[in-house]
Amino acid sequence: MTITEKLYVGGAWTEPEGGHYEVVNPATEEVVGLAPEASRAQVHEAAAAAREAFADWSRTKPEERAAILDRAAGLMARDAAAHVELARAETGATTATARSMQVAVGSARFRRYARGALEPVEQALPPQISEAGPMGRAGVLGAVAVRRPVGVVTCITSYNNPWANPAGKIAPALAMGNTVVVKPAPQDPLSVFAMVRALEEAGVPAGVVNLVTGSAPAAGEAAVDSPDVDMVSFTGSTAVGQAIGEVCGRTLKRQLMELGGKGAALVFDDADLDAAVMGIGTTFAFYSGQICTAPTRVLAQRGIHDRLVEKLAAYTGHLRVGDPAERGTVVGPVISAAHRDRVESYVELGRKEGARVVAGGERPDLAKGFYVAPTLLADCTAGMRVVREEIFGPVVVVVPFDDEEEGIALAGDTDYGLIDYVWSGDVARAFRVGARLRSGGVGINTIGRNMEAPFGGFKKSGVGRDVGSYALHAYSELQAMVWPG
Asked: CATH homologous superfamily for 3-259+461-484?
């Protein structure tokens, strides 16, 4: 049965004024469900509902907010099997990825910020002795810095993970006492409806969480320019982030931006090549390369360059491409036909620029679905567009370098700076090199992430940091309180 959703505004499920649009399974090209087309007025109504709810929600006890977030996490876990099936259907993620990296992470983030709601918001400051003067008599002034909620937060999320990404915005925003308007990516919004239903069942008050969707930019634009919105948290492309930033700048709305990436993986002559190949190879398999943190730009020192290319090519040969619902599938489809065509156009561009297609490069022979073969491009140079631009698909480019200084220079020769990686048997060198990389994160001999570490980018990869307690800081404002001692 096809799912037909409604908007969630002010605690009520509301018929959309613009009708519905189809959400398509990228593996089968079948319709998964119908998502609402919110009008501009309805989006502004959602923001107004969030504004009205803010006064009460921001004054609730942290324990009450924590209890609601914890109950919501439990409800998400209770219905995990159904959530996994839905996430797989609308994203094309494999069953294992939908289960462990989408639904499980989404639930875990609500649990994390249930605890986060109880973290102290006050920081005592040293007393200051003031001499007599125009400001008054001599005395000692005490002070404390207190984190307060920002207000109404618009959360605009990306299509590559409709559980972890929205949860990473909604949960810390609510934990800090903010109210939210959630605008998911148009390609896979249905999972976010399931998340909001869990929050509703958990007892979140009316207006604290509002959910609007739309297939065109209008709904997102309204969620950004509403006068009731105080902050915009966005995950997506750098181009869209820049447009949002321009709108926010006119009214000085707060921003949290997690944008594009073209992660460099510096592989030195003394690296464990098998470990490097396993890490880099996740680009092909993990969300079919639709992840901004992927090490898509491999910088290989010449001593191991040819062996690394050979090992990466062999790795791609073992990756099964196909239906993400089938056991053994490693690489599923990309999100849409338009995105498949975009990724394929980059592969063709690479050929024209002089890159050598070592593996992949042709569309998989499958009857239906938006599939792209894992593709490895070698003989690349720093000026090629395939090296400089984010492809957001299962494509890896390899550029050789001679020495440490050249490797660092090549890594920094990019508009992006989200996460870079260094593989070297000399750990001291790896940390030394990492310290010189202009990126928000550096993986040393690993692609793993510490989920309490700050996450965000330098340069055009974003503004601000979240994850762990840093997310609580991102969704709060500092207030100074001063008193005479």
From this structure: Aldehyde Dehydrogenase; Chain A, domain 1 (3.40.605.10)
